Amino acid sequence: MSQYVLDASIAIKWFIPEVYSHAARRLLASNHTFLVPDFFFPEVGNVLWKRVRRGEDTAENARQILADLNAVPVEVYLSQPLMPLALDIALQSDRAVYT
C-alpha cells in the first residue's frame, strides 16, 4: 500500500470533472493511505464555495461533495509542527512553503 500526501486540488477532481480527473480517481479507487495537512479541509471548502459563487455548482451539490469527501479515510497532520522542516525545504529548493 502506498502513501500519498493529498492536495485539495486532487481531492476535488474525484467529484468534479476537470483536467486529469480520471487520473485522480484512479488514486481513490486503489488501496492507498492518504495523508493531509490540517488546512486541507478549509481549502476544499473554499474551492466548493468559489464554484457555487461563480454559478458553476449548487450549494446542495457542494454540501454533498463535502460529505462524500469526509467519507474518505485520511490521516490528518497538524501543519505547525512541520513548519521548521517545511521552511528549510523551501529555502533549499527556492519553493514556497505552501506548495
Describe it for me?
Helix 3 (40-53) runs antiparallel to helix 4. The longest helix has 14 residues, at 40-53. The protein has a 3-stranded parallel beta sheet with strand order 1-2-3, with no helix packed on it. 53% of the residues lie in helices and 12% in strands. It has 99 residues and is an alpha/beta fold. The chain is built from 5 helices and 3 strands. The protein has one domain (3-93): Rossmann fold (3-Layer(aba) Sandwich), CATH 3.40.50.1010.
Short synopsis of the structure:
This protein has helices at residues 8-13, 21-29, 40-53, 59-70, 83-93; strands at residues 3-5, 33-37, 74-77. It has 99 residues and is an alpha/beta fold.
How much of the residues is beta strand, in percent? 5-15%
Poorly predicted segments: none
What does the radius of gyration come to? 15 Å
Number of domains: 1
Main attributes?
99 residues; alpha/beta; globular
Question: Any chance you could write out the topology, listing elements then pairs?
Answer:
Layout: E1 3-5, H1 8-13, H2 21-29, E2 33-37, H3 40-53, H4 59-70, E3 74-77, H5 83-93
Helix pairs in contact: 3-4
